[in-house]
Amino acid sequence: MSATVNPDRVLKELADLWVTLGKENGEGGAGILRACTMTLVVAAETGDDWSALGETVAALMPEHPARTISIRLCGSGERALSERVYSQCWMPFGQRRQICCEQVELTASDSALLDLPPVVRPLAVPDLPLILWCRSPRLLAMPEFKSMASMAQKVIIDSEGMPLKDVPRVAPQGVLLGDLAWTRLTRWRETLSQVFENKENLAKLPALKKLAVSHVRSQTNTAAYLAGWVSTVIPGIETAVTPTESCDSLCARLTGDGLEVQLERQQDRLAVTVNGQTHYTSLSMFTDYLLMREELSIVQRDPVFERVLARFSSGSQH
Asked: Looking at the predicted structure, is the pLDDT value of residue 159 above 50?
């Protein structure tokens, strides 16, 4: 493994890649279409499931085509930094022309992390957003991460396993932050909001006194986010968040005078019970693809998320 990567050489390899693809698909074929809406940088440990990660990135490309820069973190040891270039192509149903996106894979040891920004910046597609998806909790805790995050317009993490009070410090000032622990709540928040589209239920909203959230340990932060969100909507409500193994992921119960609302995942559906009457709505099992598809669609600040996150950074919530 080499110790340096020349961005100009990588860009030349990308240009040569398109020439080769054009020749392979130009004679007797319908050619190829180059598609790109962003630069997606994915940082993950060497021990991560790179096969599954590759499938996730490939699934994202038709809706969010990007020049993808994958960074394999190989840990401590001899200083090392290397690269390879390839393409990701697909053919839309009913068409003969392939659509292709560029892929660059970098492998870096810990001692080479500070060399990554000078390599990645020239490789980013000009005038398009750069999104950094960090899958490594270890990297998030390292001082070198700040220089990597400062390149991005948005940083996406999954905060499960880290204290929520540390999450606001992940992204430098001016950089958008996405947390997949919060993204898992989108359908829950939509469904609970729909309960109060009923005028009778809405009139009883101020009477709600308690919220109890039960959760499996793998969704500790998601459960805390849910309690924090409800607290911003109903100031002064008493909240309790407790781990349990008796529900699929989350179970939330709101109680007050004349109104009781319960939401509970039951495999691939969400059961919503209002004063004893239950109905069901579909709720897909969480996958990296579904969560990232949603996060990559968010290009502006999420003031609701920021308000909830501020509660934890100020110490007003666990």
From this structure: yes
Alpha-carbon distance values, 173 to 6, 150, 177, 239, 274 (Å): 29, 9, 10, 31, 42
Is the same domain home to 113 and 230? no
CATH number for the domain harbouring residue 190: 3.40.30
- 224 lies in some domain: yes
Domain identity same for 219 and 271:
yes
Element (H, E) at 266: strand 259-266
Nearest to 282 by CA among 260, 293, 267, 292: 267
**And the tokens for 238?**
């008493």
Are 254 and 261 contacting, i.e. CB atoms less than 8 angstroms apart?
A: yes
Percentage of the chain with pLDDT > 70? Answer: 90
pLDDT (tens digit per residue) in 274-291: 999 999 999 988 899 999
With 0-12 / 13-18 / 19 or more C-beta atoms within 10 angstroms meaning exposed / middle / buried, residue 268 is exposed
Burial class (CB in 10 A: 0-12, 13-18, 19+), 76: exposed
Indicate the residue type of 126: P
Q: What are phi and psi of 174, to 5 degrees?
A: 90, -5
pLDDT digits 0-9 by tens, 86-112 = 677 766 655 566 777 888 999 999 988
